[in-house]
Amino acid sequence: MARAQIAAPPKRFLCDAREICYVDGAAAVFMVRYRFMLVVAWLLGASAHAAQVGFVKVDGAIGPATASYLARALDTATAQKDACVIIQLDTPGGLLESTKQIVQCFYAAKIPVVVYVAPSGACAGSAGVFITLAADVAAMAPHSSLGAAHPVEISSGGTVEKTDDVMKQKLENYASSFMETIADKRHRNVEWAKSAVLESKATTAEKALAAKVINLVAADLPDLLKQLDGLEVNGQPLATAGAKVMEIPMNAWEEFSQIFLRPEVMFVLMLMVIYGIMGELSSPGAILPGVVGAVALILVLYMSAILPVNITGLLLMGLALALFITDVFASTHGVLTAGGIISFFLGALMLFNQAAPGFGLSLRWILPATLLTGLFFIYVVGQGVRAQFSPARIGVEALRGKTATAISPLDANGGWVWMEGERWQAVSPLPVESGQTVAITGINGLILQVTPKTKQ
Question: SS3 sequence, the chain?
């Protein structure tokens, strides 16, 4: 007769005070005390794999300092192994040479470069168009603008200056071909890119997206990161969802260069050179004017190699300095000073007349500087002219016409007089009584020639 099968009781976990659990007394050990450590390790592993993106903000004219800053930022983001670097851009334009350097940095970058024209209302004009289109990913905020990349020359008053037809054609052809190569490399709308140069076309973010000029329109940075996530760049998808944004700020030198490498600063330094040299020449041994002028001259030479300086304007400024110095020592009664003022004004006008937007020298700087310099040298030359016609203050001529008091009888054989606290030997063609006032008519060696002073 078959025996009935009795079901085994379910296994139970039994735990003692040492936090060691047994399965029905079996040797299987469940180490509860290490649960917290496992959770921490899991969290650290998750954070280690979290994406990070570099963030750079460019606001203002594009110049040498901007190019240096972006090059360093790309190197830093690469070293940090960032998923990409985002450059928030808002610029009216800038120097073409600096723009070329930035584009070359983008091409050589080892991580994806995203240019984001933001915030709303921002623009990427002139040089900004080249930079935006050269990025791996071009994005814009709603209601921002892009375009107007026609090459121009800026006059001293900040207005567009007309150039001759040949030079205009050269500038247009070069800028157009440069823009075409950028758009072609990044697979953007080549025809629109060329029209931005040749016809100064501009567009909004929404129209740029529809025309395939840019890749994305994002409301803000979190929205941009969300849209970038999964986007394939150079065959690799971006992982930016929830990424940590690490800003890469300017260092001290870059901030200083952003302020220092400006036409206005160079112009002020040139004034310091002029005044420093004149101060040292007019007061030899003063030291301070000479030191200030020498340091300013070195800085001017350094800046002239970086900023877009017109060599003709620089030569006219140098000619003005030479004319000022010559007039002080040659005493042409202000003729050379007048020529120096004219040369100074024309040189200042021409100094940055071929600069890009944001790098021109305004008349608000030129006119006061010219007026101040003119008044300074008119005063210096005027003082020299007055000195030529004023009576001598030292030597024989300084004594002639002064009065003295006879302190002994005086005649042609000699006697003594008292003048300005000193006792002098003197001779007179007419007899003079002691205590009588005499007038000095000349001096022979150390003997005064005097005559009795008649009472009025």
Answer: CCCCCCCCCCCCEEECCCCEEEECCCCCCCEHHHHHHHHHHHHHHHHHCCCEEEEEEEECCECHHHHHHHHHHHHHHHHCCCCCEEEEEEECCECHHHHHHHHHHHHHCCCCEEEEECCCCCEEECHHHHHHHHCCEEEECCCCEEECCCCCEECCCCCEECCCHHHHHHHHHHHHHHHHHHHHHCCCCHHHHHHHHHCCCEEEHHHHHHCCCCCEECCCHHHHHHHHCCCEECCEECCCCCCEEEECCCCHHHHHHHHHCCHHHHHHHHHHHHHHHHHHHHCCCCCHHHHHHHHHHHHHHHHHCCCCCCHHHHHHHHHHHHHHHHHHHHCCCCHHHHHHHHHHHHHHHHHCCCECCCCCCCHHHHHHHHHHHHHHHHHHHHHHHHHHHCCCCCHHHHHCCCEEEECCCEECCEEEEEECCEEEEEECCCCECCCCEEEEEEEECCEEEEEECCCC
Mean confidence (pLDDT) of the chain = 81
Q: Provide the percentage of residues in the chain whose pLDDT is more than 70.
A: 78
pLDDT for residue 246 is more than 60: yes
**Beta-sheet pairing, 244-247 with 422-427:** unpaired
What is the strand order of the sheet 123-125 is part of?
123-125, 145-147, 202-204
Q: Could you state, in order of their start, the residue ranges of all structural domains in the chain? A: 14-47, 51-254, 262-389, 395-452
pLDDT tens string 403-440: 899 999 988 889 999 988 889 999 999 999 988 999 98
Confidence of residue 27 (pLDDT cuts 50, 70, 90): very low
pLDDT top residue among 178 and 386:
178
CATH code of the domain made up of 395-452 = 2.40.50.140
Cα angle 416-449-420, degrees, rounded to a multiple of 5:
55
- Please state the CATH superfamily assignment of the domain spanning residues 51-254 in this structure: 2-enoyl-CoA Hydratase; Chain A, domain 1 (3.90.226.10)
Residues paired with 87 in a beta bridge: 56, 115
pLDDT for 343-382, tens place per residue? 999 988 888 876 565 567 778 888 988 888 888 777 766 6
Summarised one tens digit per residue, pLDDT across range 288-297 is 888 998 999 9
